[in-house]
């Protein structure tokens, strides 16, 4: 099968540091190639793939010293995609809805994985217009806000089975990985660490839009709890970071569509303590691979119960449900349905 994968240009594929969507695109692209499919990746020029790379910009947008208009380069990329459209059997988009007006008029089969939140009111208006665009959710919870649009499947993210080594020994600190923003609930993680008296290591990026929130709200909290702020870390650093953690805190304050860090942590054997929001109940088995909670008080109690979680079960859960091979095979099934099932 001749497949195009269309990535956002904000991060390299795979990312050097933060970047869940681009990381997943990398795993999917390389697994499709391993399975024998001719795969073309549309991404920034510094991306890495065994397939064909097509780019309109030499370096990913976020890490460039001189800021560029992201819309310009995404439009240029889409022009490339549609110039080449007839050379593909199917085009798989990961760039939200920017391509909808063009794809609607294209003869080439396509689908879009929606990686972001769908609870924003304006999206209803948009999807009323584009209600026949085939889309894929990354959790069942994600699609609950727009259940009536043209869903063609739910595919959970997956990671290569050999990417994260298993760490059998329990760690000695709590971990937070992600982004410093109000919806990620970092205040909850800091409060839990403070109450249980355990070190909390934070590996996170701070976007420009969240810088004031970080400086005025979060930074003062660091003085009141045993917190070590590490900043952004890459794939190699994450292996050790997750593996040596006692538990991953996932204190989200929004309907998280997936949460890649949860399966990354569990792949190392590290249990997850997550708020009952979004996809968390679909990814964490309460009492078996971690705990699903509703409050800081409950989180404090569950920290004390982490020894009841078998780290081998955490890894087993990922190997059974969240691998790159399983993800690629699920997408191939959807591709075939779109090509031959209608």
Automatic annotation (TrEMBL):
Domain named Glycosyltransferase subfamily 4-like N-terminal: residues? 18-126
Keywords of the record, alphabetical order, are: Transferase
Q: Which superkingdom is the protein from?
A: Bacteria
Give residue ranges for domain Glycosyl transferase family: 169-304
State whether keyword Transferase applies: yes
SUPFAM superfamilies referenced in this protein's UniProt entry, alphabetically: UDP-Glycosyltransferase/glycogen phosphorylase (SSF53756)
> GO MF annotations for this entry?
glycosyltransferase activity
Which sequence ranges form a coiled-coil region, renumbered to this chain? none
Would you tell me the protein name for this molecule?
Glycosyltransferase
The organism is: Methylacidiphilum fumariolicum (strain SolV)
């Amino acid at each position: 099968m001749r497949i195009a994968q269309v990535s956002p240009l904000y991060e390299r594929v795979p990312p050097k540091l933060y970047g869940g969507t681009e990381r997943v695109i990398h795993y999917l692209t390389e697994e499709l190639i391993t399975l024998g499919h001719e795969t073309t990746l549309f991404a920034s020029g510094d991306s890495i793939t065994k397939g064909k790379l097509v780019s309109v910009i030499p370096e990913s947008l976020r890490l460039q010293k001189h800021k560029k208009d992201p819309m310009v380069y995404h439009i240029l990329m889409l022009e490339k995609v549609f110039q080449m459209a007839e050379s593909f059997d199917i085009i798989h988009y990961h760039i939200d809805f920017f391509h909808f007006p063009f794809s609607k008029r294209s003869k080439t089969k396509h689908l879009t994985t929606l990686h972001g939140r769908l609870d924003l009111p304006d999206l209803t208006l948009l999807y009323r217009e584009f209600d026949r665009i085939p889309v894929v959710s990354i959790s069942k919870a994600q699609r609950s806000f727009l259940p009536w649009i043209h869903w063609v499947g739910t595919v959970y993210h997956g990671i290569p089975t050999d990417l994260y080594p298993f760490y059998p020994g329990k760690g000695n600190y709590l971990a937070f990985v992600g982004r410093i923003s109000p919806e990620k609930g970092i205040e909850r993680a800091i409060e839990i660490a403070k109450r249980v008296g355990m070190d909390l290591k934070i590996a996170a990026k701070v976007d420009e839009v969240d810088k004031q929130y970080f400086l005025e709200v979060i930074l003062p909290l660091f003085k009141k709890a045993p917190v070590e702020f590490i900043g952004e870390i890459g794939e190699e650093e994450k292996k050790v970071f997750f593996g040596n953690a006692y538990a991953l805190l996932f204190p989200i304050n929004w309907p998280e569509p997936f949460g890649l860090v949860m399966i990354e942590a569990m792949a190392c054997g590290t249990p997850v303590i997550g708020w009952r929001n979004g996809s968390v109940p679909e990814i964490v088995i309460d009492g078996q691979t971690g705990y699903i909670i509703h409050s800081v008080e409950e989180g404090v109690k569950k920290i004390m119960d982490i020894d009841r979680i078998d780290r081998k079960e955490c890894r087993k859960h990922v190997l059974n449900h969240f691998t790159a091979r399983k993800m690629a095979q699920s997408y191939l099934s959807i591709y075939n349905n779109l090509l031959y099932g209608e």
